[in-house]
Amino acid sequence: MNEMNVTSPCADYEHDLVELLEGSLAPxxxxxxxxxxxxxxxxxxxxxxxxxxxxRLAVALPRPELSADFEQRLRDRLDGSTRNATTPxxxxxxxxxxxYQRLVDSIRRGARRHALLDAVASxxxxxxxxxxxxxxxxxxxxxxxxxxxxxxxxxxxxxxSAVAVAALAWSARRGALTPRLLH
Amino acid sequence: MDAGIExxxxxxxxxxxxxxxxxxxxxxxxRLAWSILRDRAAAEDATQxxxxxxxxxxxxxxGRAALGTWIYAITRNTCLMELRRRxxxxxFDDPDSAEAQHAAASVATGPAxxxxxxxxxxLVGQLPANQQEAVRLFYLEDRSYEIVSEQLGMPLGTVxxxxxxxxxxxxxxxxxxxxxxx
Lengths: 183, 182
Fold this sequence. Notes:
The complex is a heterodimer of chains A (183) and B (182). Chain A is mostly helical and 183 residues long. Chain A is built from 7 helices and no strands.
């Protein structure tokens, strides 16, 4: 029990010394610790030093407080938050809808333009095929070569129409695909 | 108090429950935030943010944890986000860092009229961050281990050990050099 060295108390009593100061020891245990403190100068000095530090900390540490208008500011913030949460944003919503509709319209317009161009191209190609076939078949013999006048033209017309219908069907299918993908 | 709040929550009266939560918890939430952030204005902002989050999340509170435990967890998360937002690389655990010295100095309020008090606050600022938080909260909460345990989300025994180590360390730091050498 060295009075000079107060850097630490007896190891077995270290926590008990604090609890004795705080009054949290059971009565019987408190009596035993108190008897030890009475007999041990080292523990007595350490406990005194601890009590001094404890008292100084209680006074020295700042005790900040909330501003007087804290609750009012909180209520104002919550009111604003409630308004934002319960009221949908009509402007934003309709702007998004408008933008989406513009996009859909522009894609449909593009699809119609492509379909028209495809139809014109198909008709031109059909015309060219008709003319070329008429010239190529003329020198040939056989069934085609035997046809003369209107019969030859009817057969060539039927062939050209089949090509044109196939081209238009392909074109229409291309035009119809794009808008469907948007839904 | 919490039982009354939880009854209101169970009945779906969230707004009325929140009206009781604010006066019951605002000061403790603020003190917890202050012990972590060490800045009054930032702690007040964090308290506002915490209570707004509580208000938004209250309808989803399922009562598995105690209401206080839940609110303090939100507070700690809010404060940690604020600390990360400030400077992600600062470590208050290093007592020699410039930030720790600055934080220690900033604890003192008002002019330096009491050198002994300022010295004690400077020593507190040299403790590791978790010990500083525990010490500040413990004395702000009138030496209640139970409240500090709930606020920090730690078992009671852990809080007692943390505070014991912190105050023992402060005693060592406060001793004159000749006693330390002895």
